[in-house]
């Protein structure tokens, strides 16, 4: 890996931590540069602006999540459990997603990878509904929103392991009941 690639990667990692902790508005370019052991000008050289850096962090986060957690419309409880596990292992994902929703929603389009993944998931749910494998009481996009919302709300960063396991188990059971035909 070239030195410039390593610098860019350090900047993305430092920015991920900064944006997760402070959101877009509270994040400071100076702290990102210091944490990345880079100069402030390198942020602007690689990303042009703080906003572009935030978008790059968000896009990378979404791309990694999509690659790590695949949805099987025939096993939506398993998908929710895998997603919850990912959130527990990567708490910055929920934090940055929450900051994005609070500070950036409607200002810029969602990453193309996110839109494609969402449409694919909706199509998978619609196909599973048509096959009678899961309920058709809800529109596919609403069912996906419910599952994602339930999953997000079931994850608590500071929960002791026993509580986290109980939340995960309740999540799976609730989604099993929700999607049952």
Describe the protein.
- This protein has 181 residues and is mainly α.
- The protein folds into two domains: 1-54, Homeodomain-like (Arc Repressor Mutant, subunit A); 69-181, Tetracycline Repressor, domain 2, CATH 1.10.357.
- 77% of the residues lie in helices and 0% in strands.
- The protein contains nine helices and no strands.
- Helix 1 (3-26) packs across helix 6 and helix 7 crosses helix 8 (140-154).
- It is elongated.
- The protein starts with a helix and ends with a helix.
Q: Which descriptors apply to this entry?
A:
single chain; 181 residues; Arc Repressor Mutant, subunit A; mainly alpha; 77% helix; Tetracycline Repressor, domain 2
Q: Would you spell out the secondary-structure blueprint of this structure?
A:
Blueprint: H1 3-26, H2 29-36, H3 40-47, H4 50-68, H5 76-89, H6 91-103, H7 112-130, H8 140-154, H9 161-179
Strand content: under 5%
Question: From N to C, what is the helix and strand string?
Answer: HHHHHHHHH
Radius of gyration: 18 Å
Any idea how many domains?
Answer: 2
CATH architecture of the largest domain: Orthogonal Bundle
Helix amount: over 70%
Count of distinct strands = 0
Please report the first level of CATH classification, the CATH class of the largest domain: Mainly Alpha
Q: List low-pLDDT spans.
A: none
Largest sheet: none
Termini Cα gap: 51 Å
Mean pLDDT: 93
Number of helices: 9
Morphology call? elongated
CATH topology of the largest domain: Tetracycline Repressor, domain 2
Q: CATH-wise, what's the superfamily of the largest domain?
A: Tetracycline Repressor, domain 2
The helix-and-strand class reads mainly alpha
């Amino acid at each position: 890996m070239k030195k410039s690639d390593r610098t860019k990667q350090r900047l993305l990692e430092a920015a991920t931590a900064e944006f997760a902790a402070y959101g877009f508005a509270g994040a400071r370019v100076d702290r990102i540069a210091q944490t990345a052991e880079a100069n402030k000008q390198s942020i602007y050289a690689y990303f042009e602006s703080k906003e572009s850096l935030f978008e790059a962090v968000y896009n990378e986060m979404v791309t990694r999540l999509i690659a790590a957690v695949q949805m099987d419309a025939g096993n939506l409880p398993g998908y929710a459990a895998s997603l919850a596990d990912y959130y527990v292992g990567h708490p910055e994902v929920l934090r940055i997603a929450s900051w994005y929703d609070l500070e950036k929603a409607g200002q810029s389009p969602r990453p193309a990878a996110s839109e494609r993944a969402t449409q694919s998931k909706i199509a998978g749910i619609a196909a599973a509904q048509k096959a009678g494998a899961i309920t058709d009481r809800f529109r596919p996009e609403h069912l996906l929103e419910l599952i994602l919302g339930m999953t997000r709300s079931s994850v608590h960063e500071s929960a002791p392991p026993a509580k986290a396991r109980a939340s995960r188990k309740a999540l799976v059971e609730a989604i099993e009941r929700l999607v049952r035909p």
